Each structure stands twice: as structure tokens, then as C-alpha cells.
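Data card: per-record layout.
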Amino acid sequence: MGLGQKSQTNVFKINYASQVPIRLVLNHAFSTEKARRLQLSLSKKVICEDRLPEQIKFVGGVDAAYSNGHAIGAVAVLEYSTLKVVETKTSFQVVSAPYIPTLLSFREIPPVVSAINLLSVKPDVFLVDGHGIAHPRRLGFASHLGLVLDAVTIGVAKSLLCGEIRGKEVNKWNPIMYKGMIVGAAVYTRPGVKPVYISTGHKISLDTAIEIVKHCIGKYRIPEPLREAHKAAEARKKQELG
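The structure for this 242-residue chain is written out next.
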């Protein structure tokens, strides 16, 4: 079967616990020290070069939400050429890690991977609501997820986590500098709004990541795949609370 055919099922079937020691994602045993060491180790495996297919057919958006001690993972798949929604999936499960800034991937990957495992259409690239290598240990949610899935991922964040922005060119991307390196870009997607913060997640260059995110912009600041994933997460939250 060709990539993206709807009869294709279980396109990832990733067991998150097999990728990261389960002791790091359980509330009663979570070790920030071990988690940070793991981030530093995994960051060395991140690929910042383009490993995309010749033609992008499907783009995914990934988001997570929380309610009453539970986590909701959401993924939306859109046609890349038209940005029409093809499929959305969500998961609902008990939160498996505490809220600790810069360690959010340990909290968000389990529900997100559970949702992605339900897809029948495999995205060629995922836009992730979070940072990629624009992270103090160069392993934000987008990079961590890319390694777990062995997939192309892009970090698209709404706020800056580390570094500083050089320049305020509205019509160009402005580099995010951290420890003497460009780790991402501040990009204005709509006139008169704050920029989004784009960084390499995994298997993609920054230039290509910016190009893809810009392609996915509709009428709003946030790219359409992420907006659809967010809507799916909020709908599942209302369903569970109802």
C-alpha cells in the first residue's frame, strides 16, 4: 500500500515505555536529574538535516491538554496541499509525570503517542505545540517526540523558552540565539500579531521547517494543523467532563 492510504492502520504502534525507561514517567518515581541526563543524551541523536519525502502529502498537528489529573493527547492530519482535515484522533489517560518546566515532554509524549497510534493516515511531518532544539538541553517536546516516533517533527511554540531573538524583521525570520548558536527562529505569521517560535524537532533543517510552517498558515497566527489538534483536544476534554 502507498503512504497515506486510509486502509493503512497502526502506522506507528510505538510503545513509549520501550523508548524511555518507565521509571522516568511515573509520578511516584520521577527523577528530574535522570530526566535531564536523558535529555542531554538523546539530544545528540537529533538530526537537523532534511529527511523528508520528495513530496509532502500529509502534515500532522500535535497538542496536549489536561483536566482533573488526566492528559489528553490529540493529533490532526491535514492534506498538505489544501490544508483540509483528513483525520483526527485523541487519547485520554492518567497523567504520568509531574509538571516541571523544560521536562514537559515526559508528561506530554505518552498521551500524544497513544493518539498517534490510532491514526490510519501517516503524516510526512508533524507540527508540534512546543519547542524542538530551542531548549536549554536541546531536546524539547518536538525533538523528543521525533526520536520516539523516528519521524520528521517541527517545534512551533507560542512563547520563548531560552535564548534571545536577534532582530525584529516582520517580513523575515529572526534568529533565536542560545549559547552562540542559532537554535530557532521567531516568525511573524500574520500582521500585527506576536511571532511564533519555530525550531528543528527531528530530521529537518530550520529553513525547511520555517517554509512548512508558513505554508500551513491560514487566517490565524497558529498554523492550521496545530489549531485542528487543539480543537480536537478541547472537544475531548468537554466530552470527558460532561
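Known properties of this structure: The domain at 16-161+198-241 is CATH 3.30.2170.10 (archaeoglobus fulgidus dsm 4304 fold). The two ends are 40 Å apart (CA to CA).

See the next section for split statistics.
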